[in-house]
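Fold it.
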Amino acid sequence: MSTSDFYFELSANGEQTAFETVDGISTVPVLKHTLRSGDHPFMYRIPSLPKSDSIVLKNGKATQGSKLMQWCAPASDENAVQEKSRVVLYLKDKSGKPLVEWTLHNAFPKGHHSKKMEGGAPTTEISDLEVGYSFYTLSKR
């Protein structure tokens, strides 16, 4: 990990993995167009459920065969059924104290790029991990 004052931690399948950066935490409001009938028809734009995209976590490390890597494995097999679960993403300060918590509901891995690191402990360097989700809830600590 870098010497930054902050880092992200993904808690998925009972395991925590640290990442340096995250992209794509956002929602887009969806407007539904409704026509009101009558003598003076009006077109209304009514807010509907927000649309969420996916997030991309970058520069993480996991142990080989970890629960996170097992969860990500079906993303590389196009015939496998994706297991959806609730995962939590934390923004933490350098001492490990959580500052912000995003709970991603019905989350599933969409894809990842990783490579095995040689050396002492068998680790996998995750260059990026894309996670799709239905919606998220936010809580500040």
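Residues 67-72 form the longest helix (6 residues).
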